[in-house]
Amino acid sequence: MLITNIKGLVGLHPKDKLVLRGSQMSNLPVLENAWLLIEGNLIKDFGKMSEMPSPVSQLSPQLSAKDKYVFPSWCDSHTHIVFAASREEEFALKIQGKSYEEIAAAGGATRLLDGRVSKLTSKLIAYLISDFVKAQA
């Protein structure tokens, strides 16, 4: 799969930087007007549209991401499938370099969610699940 015309390819770091922790997560470099080549489940190559090698430009299938941002390297390893409440407060603390223990002691982590999640209606939970299933199709 070749994704072209990407407005911003976000989160590109040197190949030797496989894991970001703490304040490192606040640095999200962006390559503007880019392309991304995926083979199987792996990123094979990427670059600026103006520098795309001719053989790559002939590949198919292709998908235009015109005016869209793509986050190929983004992975929050602690994400739940049915996302019922926001955890932006926790993420902000993580990129400030706070440890999980410090976040929990400040009332963070799942404690932040306890009150919000318990107020969810069964109708909203069903919607979140169906929305997730549709996105997987």
Short note summarizing the structure:
The chain is an alpha/beta fold. It is built from five helices and five strands.
Topology diagram in text:
Blueprint: E1 2-10, E2 30-39, E3 42-48, H1 54-57, E4 62-64, E5 69-70, H2 88-95, H3 100-105, H4 110-118, H5 122-136
Supply database-style keywords.
137 residues, alpha/beta, five-stranded mixed beta sheet, flat
Explain what this protein looks like in three dimensions.
The chain has 137 residues and is of the alpha/beta class. The protein folds into two domains: 2-70, no CATH class; 88-136, no CATH class. The protein has five helices and five strands. The chain has helices at residues 54-57, 88-95, 100-105, 110-118, 122-136; strands at residues 2-10, 30-39, 42-48, 62-64, 69-70. Strands 1, 2, 3, 4 and 5 form a five-stranded mixed beta sheet that branches. A hairpin with a 2-residue loop joins strand 2 and strand 3. It is flat and about 55 Å long. The two termini are 17 Å apart. 11% of the residues are buried. The model has no long low-confidence stretch (mean pLDDT 78).
Strand elements, count: 5
> Mean of the pLDDT scores?
78
Overall SS class: alpha/beta
**Helical proportion, percent range:** 25-40%
> SSE string, helix = H, strand = E?
EEEHEEHHHH
Count of distinct structural domains? 2
Extract low-pLDDT stretches. none
